[in-house]
Design brief:
Largest sheet: 2 strands, antiparallel
Shape: flat
Order of helices and strands: HHEEHHHH
Radius of gyration: 31 Å
Structural class: mainly alpha
Distance between the termini: 92 Å
Number of helices: 6
Strand order of the largest sheet: 1-2
Number of strands: 2
Oligomer: single chain
Strand content: under 5%
Length: about 170
């Protein structure tokens, strides 16, 4: 019969592995406890927003976010050379340079001056009164694609309404 003898090095390695496994178990348990504590706090926040603040909209948004779980986001952009940039200031300058090159093109003809020939009759430009009526008919709690709340348009003055009218006309 063969006997297996453990050398001192084998005993050291196995004790290191056991220590590593123990540390991993403790760390995993610690992370689980922190996650439970965090989730419990989120649930309590949702309950207080529903009961005390009576804000049902935020309550349901919170439930949807809670169901999704953690959404990992990174702020990494490649610079002109192809290197990864993680610094927020460098990222902003990279985007600024990118869009300035993309949008600031010299020598482009102004297409707005060309005459349009269409089959459909052209729709008349909206008057200031029509724009004001359209803004008043907006539903509250609605957010446009550019994340501007409808209440901001409703609370606007004549100047804002006229600027919106100019924008609609230019479009």
């Amino acid at each position: 019969m063969f006997r297996f003898f453990r050398s001192k090095e084998t005993v050291k390695c196995s004790s290191n592995v056991d220590n590593l496994n123990n540390v991993r178990c403790v760390a995993s348990e610690n992370f689980r406890n922190k996650k439970k504590k965090y989730l419990k706090g989120k649930i309590e926040d949702l309950e207080t927003s529903r009961k005390i603040k009576k804000n049902i909209r935020d309550f349901y948004k919170g439930i949807i976010d809670f169901k999704k779980g953690y959404q990992y986001r990174t702020n990494i952009v490649k610079d002109e050379k192809g290197d990864l940039v993680t610094d927020s200031h460098s990222i902003l300058t990279r985007w600024r340079n990118h869009f300035s090159l993309l949008l600031n093109i010299l020598g482009v003809n102004d297409d707005r001056k060309t005459e349009l020939h269409t089959v459909e009759p052209l729709v008349p430009e909206p008057s200031a009164f029509e724009v004001k009526l359209a803004i008043e008919k907006l539903k509250s709690q609605i957010t446009s694609l550019d994340q501007i709340q409808a209440e901001l348009f409703m609370a606007g003055t004549k100047t804002i309404h006229s600027e919106i009218q100019k924008l609609v006309i230019s479009i």
